Amino acid sequence: MSEFALELLDISCTFVSRDDAAQRHVAVAGTTLRIRAGEFVSVVGPTGCGKSTLLNIGAGLLEPSSGQVQVFGQSLAGVNSRAGYMFQADALMPWFSALDNVMLGLLYRGMPQVQARDEAQAWLHRVGLGAFGDRYPHQLSGGMRKRTALAQVLALDPDIILMDEPFSALDVQTRQLMENEVLALWAARKKAVLFITHDLDEAIAMSDRVVVLSAGPATHPIGEFVIDLPRPRDVAEVRSQPRFVELHKQIWNVLREEVLKGYAQQLEKI
Ligand SMILES: Nc1ncnc2c1ncn2[C@@H]1O[C@H](COP(=O)(O)OP(=O)(O)O)[C@@H](O)[C@H]1O
Ligand SMILES: [Mg+2]
Q1: Which atom number of ligand 1 is nearest to the Cα of residue 50?
Q2: What is the pLDDT of residue 161?
Q3: Averages of pLDDT over each 10 residues, the chain, 270 residues
Q4: Based on C-alpha coordinates, what's the Rg of the chain?
Q5: How confident is the model over 77-123, as pLDDT tens digits?
Q6: Which ligand minimizes its atom distance to the CA of 17?
Q7: Of 6, 12, 142, 191, which residue is most buried, by most CB within 10 angstroms?
Q8: Reduced to 3 states, what is the DSSP secondary structure of residue 207?
């Protein structure tokens, strides 16, 4: 079996403009990204550079214009069934309770009702929502909805977890709580994680490796850093370690320029 859970190999992705089919936008070009089984990798880059595009390609939700995706050494065709996803926006069904939301995927996989209920309840408990299974999404706080979404993903026991800025809408304290919980759950089960963020502190605090993307168009990796901070980590406390500060400085040196370019591009669009 391949040592890599997920490989994006020489990926390019060109979008055709919605308004003018003759206009093409090269979002991603010549990008190779490999994630080992059990490895936690973050990808950082300025807004609009192509992070979500890469994640969607890894999920099999978007086909690249060229290049290959390999999942545990096998070429990916269609949706990546070894992966679970968590996106920035809630994907909870508003008319189902938290418990039913977590159960859905299990039932869909053919798990008997009683077993699915027990399993879903156990996962809600693990994310600290054991007593909230009967609440509907609108009765939950933003943090609690994220916890439900996390339980939903983890209950399916995917070998690869794809997260696209999952906590960016949360306040700082809730966010740090969630980040620590994700790390604790990950440490217990060691799945391959591809974590997308535009927040460098979050990327360093969580990851084994941080990959920096260039600003678009034709986005590609321009730096890769091994995060050799000891684990277990507390995401709030780790920030004051001298090694964290040093890594932050090194990576920010590479990222700064790209963020400025990305920001200038955003302004042009307004
Ligand atoms: N479906 C699409 N059609 C056309 N352009 C797209 C589409 N998806 C993304 N893009 C463009 O590709 C670039 C990268 O987008 P995205 O991957 O969402 O960036 P990020 O997640 O880093 O903010 C952006 O310029 C965006 O406008
Ligand atoms: Mg995005």
Answers
A1: 17
A2: 96
A3: 92 88 89 97 94 96 96 96 89 95 94 97 93 97 92 94 92 91 92 95 97 95 97 96 98 95 85
A4: 19
A5: 999 999 999 988 878 999 999 999 999 999 999 999 999 999 999 99
A6: 1
A7: 6
A8: coil
The CA 164 to ligand 2 mean position distance, Å, reads: 7
Domain 41-56+158-269 = CATH 3.80.10: no
- List the one residue out of 44, 62, 66, 65 whose CA is nearest residue 53: 62
pLDDT digits (tens, 9 = 90+) for 216-227: 899 999 999 999
Does ligand 1 lie within 6 Å of residue 33's CB atom?
no
Give residue limits of the domains in the chain.
41-56+158-269
DSSP letters, 75-131, are: E--SS-TTEEEE-SS----TTS-HHHHHHHHHHHTT--HHHHHHHHHHHHHHTT-TT
Interval between CA 46 and ligand 1 midpoint (Å)? 12
Ligand 1 contact, 175 CB (< 6 A): no
Ligand 1 atom closest to the CA of 198, numbered from 1? 22
Nearest to 193 by CA among 30, 202, 201: 202
Overall pTM surpassing 0.90 (yes/no): yes
Residue 49 beta carbon below 6 angstroms from any ligand 1 atom: yes
Residue 58 in contact with ligand 1 by CB distance below 6 A: no
